[in-house]
Amino acid sequence: MNKLVEGSYVFTESDLANYPFIPEAAKFVKNLDIKIDELASPEYKSILNRAQERVEEAIHDALVSRNLHNCGIEIPSFPIAVMMVVALANPYLKKRYALAEAKGVHRQLEEEDKEKTIEIAKTFDWNIKPVEDDANIKIYDFSLHFTDFLKNTEAFHDTKWKLVNRVMLRGNVYLTKSEASRLLQEEVQRYVEGKLSAKIGILPPNIMERVEQLKQLFIEKRGKIQSEETPKIMVTAAFPPCIKELYDTIKSGHHLSHIGRFALTSFLVNVGMTVENVVDLFRSLSDFDERMTRYQVEHIAGEKGSRTKYIPPRCDTLRTHRVCVGTDDTCRRTRHPLAYYRIRLRAMGREVINEHRDSEKR
After folding, report:
1. In b/e form, how buried is each residue of 199-215, taking b as 16+ CB within 10 angstroms?
2. How far does the chain reach from its first CA to its final CA, in angstroms?
3. Nearby residues of 197 by Cβ (< 8 Å), 6 or more positions away
4. CB atoms within 10 A of CB 243
């Protein structure tokens, strides 16, 4: 395997394939001098296949694997995959792809030695040093300046990432190799998201055909993806105002409009409530018919009929049908009740969610 030298450190082509964001990987691709209008040539078919596969992996698994059997294909497949995702022009898919690439890097970094991890971290100008074997704190592998630490933990809710709970000496936070890898994942995700904000021109027809295939795959998998990403712990405190109003109305025994019933039922089955519990929610209504209610709930949950699990209508549809009861700050940042719910869950954090769940059980 050829080795590429930058300063005093040697990166192999396998490294460039594993870490396509490092400057040496960009130089490798630049030296190939691939022109966009040349990508229709049969000689680039293998690279295009792998680029499309990267995006497919992101859609299916939210994780891009590493294929080191042919680094000459793997390395240039990354920028072409990025180009395909940009062409898809879907903000949600851009975030999913960036996360999938970053998770692939995280997995690989956990297998690396300290020296290579530090060289990778230098890509992001980290002030990071190895913890020597004879240091007083032997359970850690690295020390990282607290500014780099804070920059990459601001979205974390687990208490172990709070600065007050960390070992810190002379402005440096001590990390294990696994922790450093997790923080680098955040850096890589931001890097890829930055690449995905670029604009591209007209792509060759053969690439646009692949982009259309990826678009159709994402449409097919979107419902399943959103369902998987929503924690199956129902937290009423995270409900959007419209759903909270519908939920409280039905619990008090008052009737809902047809669109209100559908919106509430489809929301509840997507955030973890069982069919049985949704059916029980409707028992207080004077016109309750268990057979009909159960069939309708099971149909919406994807257990009957077409086996399609329905999601609630978008916010603009709910406003049209006067289901919307007013907006808050989170409403103004989203266009769908389930998106609102996911945002609120992230904001609440795991500890608050667990506490809320336990209180609802009592």
Report:
1. eeeebeeebeebbeebb
2. 61
3. none
4. 25
Contact 118, 128 (CB under 8 A): yes
Q: Which of 56, 58, 59, 72 is nearest to 104 (CA)?
A: 58
Q: pLDDT by residue (tens digit) across 222-270? A: 767 766 665 556 888 999 999 999 999 998 889 999 999 999 999 999 8
State the Cα angle at 50 between 189 and 99, rounded to 5°.
Answer: 15
CA distance 162 to 168: 12
List Cα–Cα distances, 193 to 76, 85, 186, in angstroms.
Answer: 18, 11, 11
Other residues' Cβ atoms within 10 Å of the Cβ of residue 27: 12
Contact between 89 and 103 (Cβ < 8 Å): no
| Gap between the Cα atoms of 131 and 17, Å rounded | 28
Distance CA 162, CA 158 (A): 8
Tell me the two tokens of residue 347: 């904001």
User: Is 352 strand, coil or helix?
Assistant: helix
Cα distances (angstroms) measured from residue 188 to each of 60, 78, 80, 356? 20, 13, 17, 33
Question: Residue ranges of the alpha helices (H) in 271-330?
Answer: 275-281, 290-300, 315-320
Residues 39 and 29 sit within 8 Å (Cβ to Cβ): no
Half-sphere exposure of 124 (CA within 13 A, CB side): 27
Burial label, 230 (beta-carbon count in 10 A; 0-12, 13-18, 19+): middle
3-class secondary structure, 68 = coil
Residue ranges in 128-204 assigned as alpha helix (H): 146-151, 177-195
Give the contacts of 73 (CB within 8 A, at least 6 positions apart): 46, 47, 50, 67
Task: Tell me the domain boundaries of the chain.
Answer: 3-101+203-225, 109-189, 236-361
Q: What is the mean pLDDT of residues 20-26?
A: 95
Is the pLDDT assigned to residue 130 strictly greater than 50? yes
Nearest to 61 by CA among 88, 31, 101: 101
